[in-house]
Amino acid sequence: MEVETEPGAGGLAIRLRAPRTAVTRIWLRWKGATPEGMRFLGDHWERSYGDLEWRGFVADRPMPWYFLASNGRASSGYGVKTGAGSIASWQVDPDGVTLCLDVHNGGSGVELGERRLEAATVVMVKGGGALDTARRLCRAMCPKPKALAAPVYGGNNWYYTYGKGLTEEAMLRDSALMSDLAPASASNRPFMVLDMGWAELAEGAGPSRNSNAGFPDMPTLAERIRKRGARPGIWLRPLLTTDRLSEAWRLPGRQAGGGARSPYFVLDPSVAEALAYVGEQVRVLREWGFDLIKHDYTTFDITGRWGFQMLPDLTERGWRFHDRTRTTAEIVSKLYAAIREAAGDALLIGCNTIGHLGAGLFEMQRIGDDTSGREWSRTRKMGVNTLAFRLPQHGTLFAADADCVPVTKDIPWELTRQWLDLVVRSATPLFVSADPAALGDRERAALKAAFAEAARPHPGIEPLDWFETTMPSRWSGPAGPVRFDWHAGDVD
């Protein structure tokens, strides 16, 4: 095997040739003393899980995709460009820096044959404050993000329904509510996203053409949502289906929902016919008239693991895609490109997707695990942490979606109000999951004011105490400092 590094204006290109050897990982080491008193921040494989933080030396701590180093005064950042042919992570110790490029094909080594793999391109930035350095690093990693034409805001029904009892009538009621809350003068109308629960079968399984009895006519539903002053959005799990397809299209070794007798079929995105099938599922939703498509679960369906479980390996060892000649990163990137092409001019939100591979293809990316309409501690952990530590990705890799603001009777309004305020001030996409039974005059007035702010471009807000805590409470914005009390009236 041969590993080639080539410095250039765009960064340090790293290439691999291995015509007769299956390769799993490439390790590169930069030797040199790392100054004392430094702290380090990494990213995550896909969504984050309330676990991002600045830390000192933890030699065996992998920092996916990029890392920042800071002594509190000056900072530097190191990462790999988006769309890489590998899945990258960094480790730092007092004696140097290590970069691991994971080039697995599933749980086995990739068999490149005579092909040369463009494994990664390393970029770096130096100087300035930590947040500014992080933003400049993200820009260096992703020279062509897919930008939104206008701010995105609106509703999503998941966190007060959790997919139960969904009907066309309820969707139309929620659409009218979003339209009423939005400023009448806004040309960018609010979205109303129909989340998991509209399909015929459980677990969000396709095929997408089969809706359940609550939604007898999906094209008419999209049209009726639009007539109520909102834009229709919809959720999709593209790799899981109950269609009886060729076994050659099935992801090897992957049986979802109950083993060999499961009715579910997990598609192998390395198979051209399976990829065309995925594209057709997405294309159906766009033809129905949905302007936003939230696609979910692809990382879990491929690897069998959530991001926090991807240590020491991203997936179970031993299995392979049908196409053994491409890396997992390359196969996932091609899947995302197929979804992008099939979606046409619809906006895309990737959820449980690998943001570093979706950057430049998706307008929006869910950057953290689920918030909650039932447990405030979950919203606080997942929402606040992911927004604070992944905020530099907003507008540089994609529009960062920190997940919904649930408005339910289970969460005290004083806590919900603060989370709503932070998301609005961050200038990131705002989605609320508002239970009509929990909306009084106070809640409606606050949501109306939030939508008025979210509908227009405005400067964002920055965490001030992110070096000291995983849930920053002190922030700074155009109007000055803001303080949040995430533990006020704590109930769980």
Please, could you describe this protein's structure?
By secondary structure, this protein is α/β, with parallel strands linked by helices. The protein has 2 domains: 140 residues, no CATH class; 331 residues, Aldolase class I (TIM Barrel). The protein is 26% helix and 24% strand. The chain contains 11 helices and 26 strands. The strands form 6 sheets. A 9-stranded parallel sheet has the order 21-20-19-18-15-14-13-23-22. A 6-stranded antiparallel sheet has the order 1-2-12-7-6-4, covered by helices on one side. The longest helix has 17 residues. The protein starts with a strand and ends in a 9-residue tail after the last strand. The mean pLDDT is 95.
Radius of gyration: 22 Å
**Spatial strand arrangement across the major sheet:** 21-20-19-18-15-14-13-23-22
Second rung of CATH, namely the architecture of the largest domain: Alpha-Beta Barrel
> How far do the termini sit from each other?
54 Å
The portion of residues forming beta strands comes to 15-25%
CATH topology of the largest domain: TIM Barrel
Please tell me the overall pLDDT: 95
How many E strands?
26
**Main beta sheet:** 9 strands, parallel
Structural class by SSE content = alpha/beta
- What is the CATH superfamily label of the largest domain? Aldolase class I
Shape: globular
- State the low-pLDDT regions, or none: none
- CATH class bucket of the largest domain: Alpha Beta
The proportion of residues forming helix, as a percent range, comes to 25-40%
Number of helices: 11
Q: Could you outline the blueprint of secondary structure elements for this entry?
A:
Blueprint: E1 2-8, E2 11-17, E3 25-31, E4 39-42, E5 63-64, E6 66-70, E7 75-80, E8 87-93, E9 96-102, E10 104-105, E11 108-109, E12 116-126, H1 130-141, E13 153-156, H2 158-161, H3 168-181, E14 191-194, H4 218-227, E15 231-236, E16 240-241, E17 265-266, H5 272-288, E18 292-295, H6 298-303, H7 328-343, E19 347-350, H8 355-358, E20 364-366, H9 376-390, E21 399-401, E22 405-407, H10 413-426, E23 430-434, H11 441-454, E24 462-463, E25 474-477, E26 480-483
Parallel strand pairs: 13-14, 13-23, 14-15, 15-18, 18-19, 19-20, 20-21, 22-23
Antiparallel strand pairs: 1-2, 2-12, 3-9, 4-6, 5-8, 6-7, 7-12, 8-9, 10-11, 16-17, 24-25, 25-26
